[in-house]
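Hi R.,

As promised on Friday, here is the backbone we talked about, encoded as structure tokens. Could you run it through your design pipeline when you get a chance and send me back a sequence?
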């Protein structure tokens, strides 16, 4: 297993963007982190879960947090749970960027939450967003009435006023702790112990259909209510990455929006959520496919599994709500049989059963992720591989193609992540699919490569007299 490496932002000053819905918090977040990391749409309440990123502000890195809009709502309602998550982020902030919409003017909600912010005893910087043009700048002056000091007029959408904002943030950040002699030595000799620098964290994407329990699983792993959860399907809209340390290992775990059947996706916002989920899967090394064990394998689960295989990611099958399953042996068998029949590349995929809600057996998930990552990175020595290849050719000789038998000469592994092999030989590129499956199944069994996609490519030998 790789050595751990903390993500940027672990010990950085925390800057939280807060305010009522639809004032441009996510647009500002994307501007400050330098990329479109948070979903943005002209719809109130797009952001539901806290989203974190690292921003460079006047030469200093800060941990930037985008929050859901602050709204008055019952604690048990969806908006109440969103507000509780935002309030939790404010409590840990070194600086709060309280954002208002300059074009809309000061609303009763702005006044209410400005009073609440003042009571939190956190440093606050007032931002009048959407203040482009003369009218916007004049409207920004109304923000003085909130009693939070001088407002910074800006337009996150158009990139106006960001330079002034950077200066104001830098002035209000706590001073960095000066490093000791060890830090100075490392700066003087940047190549010292270069070979011992850790690799990045193991990237994990939690995927599945809506309401399968993905966010509840992440909360249980973290030991805190980090993600908004509830009985409503489709609560998670954006892909939210968090860092988790488990023993000597570091994981970057991304909770993704539920993936529904394509025919049912008609809203622009949901299309954006699905795109973010697929992008998170592409960036991951291991995908945790969460299934509702009480429902078994649905067609959409198979489609997601095929997407994981097509992207070449290691996979762990997570059967959630296992405590509600009556006949567990029959349920497990039915799920694995359905996968082996419908998706041969998932044969032997590691299976973890647990209850994300109660936390029972959730501790088995991360060890399974480590094991899947190890298999995904496996390399087979060329000599051992070709001894196996010769045995496979003797057991079942290559087929006839156009009346001539294929002459397969040798095989080599060209890369891992996922394991990829190339077979060389005369007209090897004409190898039928059933013989490829025969070799792939043999590779999986002989070299213990369960549950990961195996790529088998072919290279034919060029006949030097073919053009004469």
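Update: got your reply. Pasting your designed sequence below so it's all in one thread:
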């Amino acid at each position: 297993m790789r050595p751990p490496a903390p993500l940027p932002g672990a010990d950085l000053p925390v800057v939280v963007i807060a305010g009522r819905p639809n004032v441009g918090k996510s647009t500002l977040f994307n501007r400050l982190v330098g990329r479109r990391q948070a979903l943005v749409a002209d719809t109130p309440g797009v952001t539901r879960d806290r989203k974190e990123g690292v921003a460079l502000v006047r030469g200093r890195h800060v941990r930037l947090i985008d929050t859901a809009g602050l709204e008055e709502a019952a604690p048990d309602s969806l908006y109440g749970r969103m507000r509780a998550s935002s309030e939790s982020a404010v409590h840990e902030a070194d600086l709060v960027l309280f954002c208002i919409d300059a074009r809309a003017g000061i609303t009763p909600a702005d006044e209410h939450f400005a009073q609440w912010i003042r009571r939190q005893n956190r440093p606050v910087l007032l931002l009048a967003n959407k203040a482009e043009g003369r009218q916007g700048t004049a409207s920004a002056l109304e923000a003085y009435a909130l009693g939070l000091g001088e407002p910074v007029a800006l337009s996150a959408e158009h990139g106006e006023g960001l330079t002034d904002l950077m200066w104001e943030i830098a002035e209000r950040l706590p001073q960095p702790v000066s490093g000791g002699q060890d830090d100075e030595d490392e700066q003087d000799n940047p190549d010292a112990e270069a070979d011992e620098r850790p690799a990045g964290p193991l990237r994990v994407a939690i995927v599945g259909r809506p309401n399968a329990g993905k966010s509840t699983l992440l909360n249980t792993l973290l030991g805190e209510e980090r993600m908004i959860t509830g009985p409503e399907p489709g609560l998670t809209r954006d892909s939210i990455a968090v860092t988790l340390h488990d023993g000597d290992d570091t994981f970057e775990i991304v909770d993704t929006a539920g993936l529904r059947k394509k025919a049912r996706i008609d809203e622009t916002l949901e299309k954006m959520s699905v795109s973010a989920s697929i992008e998170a899967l592409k960036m991951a090394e291991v995908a945790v496919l969460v299934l509702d064990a009480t429902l078994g394998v649905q067609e959409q689960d198979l489609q997601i599994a095929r997407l994981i295989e097509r992207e070449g990611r290691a996979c762990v099958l997570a059967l959630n709500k296992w405590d509600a399953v009556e006949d567990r042996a029959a349920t497990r068998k039915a799920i694995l049989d359905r996968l082996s029949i419908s998706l041969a590349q998932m044969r032997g995929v590691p299976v973890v059963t647990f209850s994300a809600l109660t936390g029972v057996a959730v501790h088995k998930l991360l060890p399974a992720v480590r094991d899947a990552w190890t298999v995904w990175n496996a390399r087979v020595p060329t000599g051992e591989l070709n001894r196996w290849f010769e045995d496979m050719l003797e057991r079942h000789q290559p087929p006839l193609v156009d009346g001539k038998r294929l002459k397969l000469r040798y095989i080599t592994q060209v890369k891992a992540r996922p394991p990829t092999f190339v077979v060389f030989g005369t007209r090897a590129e004409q190898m039928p699919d059933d013989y490829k499956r025969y070799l792939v199944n043999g590779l999986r069994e002989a070299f213990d490569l369960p549950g990961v996609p195996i790529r088998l490519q072919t290279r034919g030998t060029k006949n030097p007299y073919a053009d004469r």
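One thing I noticed while checking it: The chain has 13 helices and 17 strands.

Thanks again,
M.
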